[in-house]
């Protein structure tokens, strides 16, 4: 019995055990958070680089934990995906974000073409009733499909492969706009990209980050912008933090940017204030 116990000790090391417990705790907390509505949606502006106007917002979920404070989505979204809880959270975020844009339209704070981008995880993308759910959200919030933009990561698209094009096409048929998120990190084949009914490539922050260092550090950014434009898509640079990055992106003809240089993600009140005081 002693030898067995010793062997077990090697298999379940205390650090692993600790990690498993934390995950379990996080899952329990997430279930409670859904019941108690501890989630909030923040909005980060997407800016047209030549005119400096706000062209839309990305909805980013925040979790206000009763004891831990704000928990980063980078921490809880993966757990929510693994446990399937993402479908509840995602549905709620989409509903909330669509409703918010509709309110801004009614208050004449936002002009007609301003878009609301909502993230869709792989798991959500695989829901059999995804289309129904989106139709229902648009109907209930009375938002036009043209104002909704869905962000799907490049890796999610590659993972789902075959069925993806059909779903994207159904969304496109409804005039919902589509973005490929974190572009450049997921090894898309270019021929595949050509067949996807997508409007926008979002260039991952990891590519934008080094471009202000020196002239050799542009890396793949010019190529990605060229690919986007030659396929009739627009390009959004993610994580724009400095004036130098902005200047480089402008010379590269990148159409849109998002990042702390323009604004951090804001709660709905501050986002409305920003809308009221900015050109669109
Ligand atoms: P993402 O979709 O790539 O979102 C962009 C992330 O970059 C956000 O982090 C945003 O706050 C951050 N960011 C924006 N500008 C800058 C900048 O200039 N510098 C830096 N360093 N960061 C910047 P956040 O809000 O923590 O979200 C992290 C990830 O969690 C998102 O990455 C997305 O994958 C996921 N996520 C957030 N909200 C949702 C949601 O409602 N549904 C789903 N499925 N995923 C979500
Ligand atoms: Ca995104
Ligand atoms: Ca992204
Ligand atoms: Ca990301």
From TrEMBL:
Residues 23-279 form the EAL domain. This is EAL domain-containing protein. The lineage of its organism: Bacteria, Bacillati, Cyanobacteriota, Cyanophyceae, Oscillatoriophycideae. The chain holds residues 331 to 610 of 611 of the full protein.
